[in-house]
Amino acid sequence: MNDKLKALREELKYDKTDSCVQCGYCLPACPTYATMGKETHSPRGRINLVKMVGEGKITDLSVLEEPMDLCLGCRACETVCPTGVEYGSILEAARAAITRRKTYSAPVRILRHTLFKRVFPSRQAMNLIGNAKWFYEKSGVQKLARKSGVIAKLPSHLGDFEVIAPPAVSPLERSRLPRFTAARGAKKYTVAFFTGCVMDAMFRRINHLSVKLLAAAGCDVVVIDNQTCCGALHAHSGELDESKRLAKRNIAAFEQVEADFIVNNAGGCGALLVEYGHLLADEPEWKERAKRFAEKSKDISQVLVWCGGVSVAKHSAERVTYQRSCHMTNVQKVNKEPLQLIRSIPNVEFVEMKEAEMCCGSAGIYNIVNFDASMDILDRKMEYVNDTLAATIITTNPGCLLQMKLGVEREQKSGQVRVLHLVEFLAEAAGIE
């Protein structure tokens, strides 16, 4: 084997493909295989392509691009795999290898650089976006844009997402997320709250409610100023080096606080936070620090359950269903706690949907860059949601939240079915605003 092929194998994590015995157990669990019916768009098919590249049978890595691009990265295949294939690592490495070799047009290159290095990692930039959205809504520009039809003409179906985006909070309210919130009653834990980038810009209200819920449950809550984006969007887009840089920034920031847990409220963010040890495993200076950070990282549902749940003020009778976050389920392995919290609320009838573990098609920005493929997956999901006759769909991830809202719009049920983050649902039941 020549040195070039050996280096390529290491880059692609070729050795990890040996665990795949091509048994096909992953096929029924894969959303893209279910909707596209192509072997190249299944986990074992993608792994086989990587093997062929690593063995020199395929010399053009662009062959990998479409199969990897159309993968949701939900990692449901890992959950059902009988041989423990680390599909996430293989996918991550393949995407990074493709990105390193791809020549982007000038506009795309500038856009990627701006978003990944200047916008998502910057709290100031994300705050500016949140404030701009509030001004857009309150100034009358939104009404004018919708009335004129401009929204419907936005590229990449962005107009569809504009309609279902949550209302922005005011700049004044944005400034009211305290750096420290004391536990109500006897303190059970001290937690450091991970705000995220998109969560903080677009879903600030959920962050506020998260802090209040944690405090009500008995946690001292610390919000660290110099934290940054988790790096998940970067890793999923092949920007692995930038993802590692952001991980190091977060580790260094949260090391400054003595906390029992680092708490997040977004399944996608949490999935990367718990894998910081894997992400930085090859860097001796950061390996153990990353492992300690990952061990402390918990979803808010876990901590609320450990604190004894939520004290309910009053709740009307309601039928609900739960759309699982793939990354929370398949990577963080947080399955029982959200259901336990939902079922603890009086007068709530919980109805499980068919194929509850199947991805909704959001997957970070997948529903923007692969809209048609995403909608095929969403439409299948909404069939099963409709069968539950639920009035409320509960989610645990911002992407899932928007995707399910879009599904409700596509089904023309916006006046009949609502979509809430678990935090919103619990805060409502607890009388927290």
UniProtKB/TrEMBL annotation:
EC number assigned by the record: 1.1.99.14
Reaction it catalyzes: (R)-lactate + A = pyruvate + AH2; glycolate + A = glyoxylate + AH2
Chain ranges of the 4Fe-4S ferredoxin-type domain: 10-40, 61-85
One MF term in the entry's GO annotations: metal ion binding
Stored Pfam families: CCG (PF02754), Fer4_8 (PF13183)
Keyword Glycoprotein: no
Matching Gene3D superfamilies: Alpha-helical ferredoxin (1.10.1060.10)
The keyword S-adenosyl-L-methionine appears for this protein: no
Residues in coiled coil: none
PROSITE patterns reported in the protein's UniProt record: 4FE4S_FER_1, 4FE4S_FER_2
SUPFAM superfamilies: 4Fe-4S ferredoxins
Cofactor: [4Fe-4S] cluster
Keywords on record: 4Fe-4S, Electron transport, Iron, Iron-sulfur, Metal-binding, Repeat, Transport
Note describing how the cofactor binds: Binds 2 [4Fe-4S] clusters.
PANTHER family for this protein: GLYCOLATE OXIDASE IRON-SULFUR SUBUNIT
Known role: Component of a complex that catalyzes the oxidation of glycolate to glyoxylate.
The name this protein goes by in its record: Glycolate oxidase iron-sulfur subunit
Organism of provenance: Paenibacillus thalictri
